[in-house]
Design a protein that fits this description.
Elements: H1 8-39, H2 43-47, H3 61-66, H4 72-100, H5 109-118, H6 126-135, H7 153-164, H8 168-176, H9 181-192, H10 194-210, H11 213-218, H12 227-236, H13 238-247, H14 261-277, H15 279-292
Helix pairs in contact: 1-14, 4-7, 4-10, 4-12, 8-9, 10-15, 12-14, 13-14
């Protein structure tokens, strides 16, 4: 069987396409690589900016010292709990509300849908938000990390658009058999919209993991401090922290183990970024499908 000859123009396009995406991938990875090699290299060389592409004087002392910071372990548990529970609540809330606004029999469907979407474009501001959270008794309350994110307008739009691409005959046949809205949603709709739910889970997990401003404004008790907030404080106190860690050693240490503000900042940045990067490989296969399906209608 004779192979189909690929035109020269397509081959040139493929070469440039792969080269462009390869370059873009390298550009995206390079900052993380730069951070990582500086955290495991000789700290004196890192301080002088001499580590660029190849690490020198390999050691893990920076991570061992950073993990000894007070309150870091508990803050990590708070962030993990917030990310897991907050993402689950957002996915469930967005999925069900997104499904409801596709039902013509829902009372005031258009009004409620537009009312939710308007909140994407208009905000009362920081002070009214804070006052509202205080009146709802969500200061020094773990629920402050969960409840505000349950109804997310952008996620509802994604779910609604995705559901509208599903044939209505599936719901009609289940309805004829006596299934109610909740049964149809859980047994038919939910399994079919898994790709878009995985996409929402990624968005929500990244947002919950990286957020620290709500902790800054709402939490004064250390038991509710998230990992990002604790590390944010340590980043701002890097100079003081470095001197404390150095003074805590009773023996002479090598230059590779002498902590500097720069190495502390880079190590803390890696500690914050690395866990959330682990989420992407597991949800990667759903991500593109979830974004694209339902994006073009017709």
């Amino acid at each position: 069987m004779e192979k189909k000859k690929i035109p020269a123009g397509e081959r040139v396009f493929a070469v440039f396409n792969y080269a462009g995406f390869t370059l873009f991938t390298i550009i995206c990875i390079l900052p993380f690589y730069y951070l990582f090699i500086n955290t495991i290299s000789d700290n004196d060389l890192t301080r002088r900016g001499l580590i660029t592409l190849i690490p020198h004087g390999l050691h893990l002392q920076n991570y061992m010292q950073v993990f000894k910071l007070r309150g870091l372990g508990h803050a990590a548990l708070v962030s993990i709990a917030r990310t897991v529970l907050g993402s689950a609540a957002t996915v469930a809330g967005s999925a069900f509300v997104g499904y409801l606004v596709t039902k013509k029999e829902m009372w005031g469907r258009k009004f409620w849908y537009r009312f939710i979407i308007v909140t994407m474009y208009f905000s009362a501001g920081l002070v009214p938000w804070y006052m509202n959270m205080v009146l709802l008794h969500l200061t020094n309350n773990f629920l402050a990390y969960i409840i505000p994110g349950i109804v997310a307008p952008f996620n509802i739009i994604l779910v609604k658009t995705y559901i509208e691409s599903i044939p209505a005959s599936l719901e009609e046949s289940a309805s004829i058999d006596g299934a109610g809205i909740t049964r149809i949603f859980l047994s038919i709709i939910w399994p079919l919209i898994t790709p878009i739910l995985a996409t929402i889970a990624i968005f929500s997990a990244v947002g919950n993991w990286n957020s620290f401003t709500d902790t800054l404004f709402l939490m004064t008790r250390e038991e509710y401090f998230t990992l990002q907030f604790v590390l944010y404080r340590y980043l701002n106190e890097a100079n003081f922290l470095a001197s404390i860690m150095r003074s805590g050693t009773t023996t002479v240490v090598s230059a590779a183990q002498t902590l500097t503000p720069r190495t502390i900042q880079m190590t803390i940045s890696m500690v914050v970024v690395f866990p959330i990067l682990l989420v992407y490989p597991f949800l990667q296969r759903f991500f593109v499908k979830g974004i694209m399906i339902g994006a073009v209608k017709g």
